[in-house]
Amino acid sequence: MPAALRLGSIAPDFEAQTTQGPIKFHEWIGDSWAVLFSHPADFTPVCTTELGEVARRAPDFAARGVKIIGLSANGLESHNEWIKDINEVGSKIAPTSVEFPIIADQDRKISTLYDMLDAVDASNVDAKGQPFTVRTVFVIDPKKIIRLTISYPAQTGRNFDEILRVIDSLQLGDKHKITTPVNWKKGDDVIVHPAVSNDQAATLFPGFKTVKPYLRTTEYPGPKPAAV
Q1: Is the distance from CB of 190 to CB of 182 less than 8 angstroms?
Q2: Is 168 inside a domain boundary?
Q3: What proportion of the chain, given as a percentage, has pLDDT over 90?
Q4: Please, are residues 36 and 69 in contact by the beta-carbon 8 Å criterion?
Q5: What would the DSSP string read from start to end of 146-180?
Q6: What CATH code is carried by the domain that includes residue 203?
Q7: Which of 11, 47, 167, 190 is catalytic?
Q8: CB of 174 closer than 8 Å to CB of 167
Q9: With CB atoms 3.0 to 4.6 Å apart as the test, which of 4, 67, 98, 152 could cross-link to 55 if both were Cys?
Q10: Residue 47 catalytic?
């Protein structure tokens, strides 16, 4: 078994066939952030809604410098046929066009490497009884470090607003010495990082507020996002 992947691990590199041609994963990421996410199977209801949502949210990921790539244990022919359904179904909500790559992982090498296979749902298997993937998400930074992992069961669709929210928090925290509180959204007040002294905070975050000695808040650093 491969070593367990944790926050701070280097995302394993691999080569794969995708709907947009062959890739070497680290090379494909380049200097960007990346989201690698798996879905149980093509031509399934929840997955169809999820990938349609990702397609519609592609500009939101791109605005954050994030590349998106999907994966399942289906082949390229299946992926390419299914994309037509995703676009058709998704377009009933809003214009939908899947333009991100989807990895064909029929031999399950990548899903095993990233521990994506379902060990819980006995119905989430192929005709031979081999497990499909669960709804795993990896957020990977430009240094190829895993910054977020989430695994959803096959029956539950993901909330991509939450994934974007975490990316906003990670990117802001990398730029400024802050952390983000519960239910935080981009533009909200933030927390001064515990490693920052009060003297440093006075310089970095003039006017910061002390709620408790260990809890200091400050306004969102930088320009606030435009109101929607």
Answers
A1: no
A2: no
A3: 85
A4: yes
A5: EEEEEEE-TTS---HHHHHHHHHHHHHHHHSSEE-
A6: 3.30.1020.10
A7: 47
A8: no
A9: 98
A10: yes
Calculate helix-pair angle for 45-56, 160-175, nearest 10 degrees: 40
Q: Which domain holds residue 205?
A: 176-218
Whether 5 and 12 have beta carbons less than 8 Å apart is answered as yes
User: The tokens of 205 are what?
Assistant: 């975050």
Count of domains observed in the chain: 2
Q: Determine the 3-state secondary structure of 60 from DSSP.
A: helix
Q: What is the pLDDT of residues 136-150, one digit of tens each?
A: 999 999 999 999 999
Spatial distance between the Cα atoms of 48 and 53, rounded to a whole number of angstroms = 9
Residue 223 lies in a domain: no
Residues 82 and 180 in one domain: no
CA-to-CA distance for 50 and 106, rounded, in angstroms? 20
**pTM score > 0.90 for this model?**
yes
> Of 124, 117, 141, nearest to 32 (Cα)?
141
Question: Percent of the chain at pLDDT above 70?
Answer: 93
CA–CA gap between residue 220 and residue 180 (Å, rounded) = 10
Per-residue CA distances from 172 to 147, 161, 166, 167, 178 (Å): 13, 16, 10, 8, 8
Amino acid, single-letter form, for residue 206: P
pLDDT in tens, 29-75: 999 999 999 999 999 999 999 999 999 999 999 999 999 999 999 99
Bridge pairing between strands 33-38 and 66-72: parallel
Same domain, 28 and 141: yes
Pair 114, 13: CB distance under 8 Å: no
CB 66 within 8 A of CB 33: yes
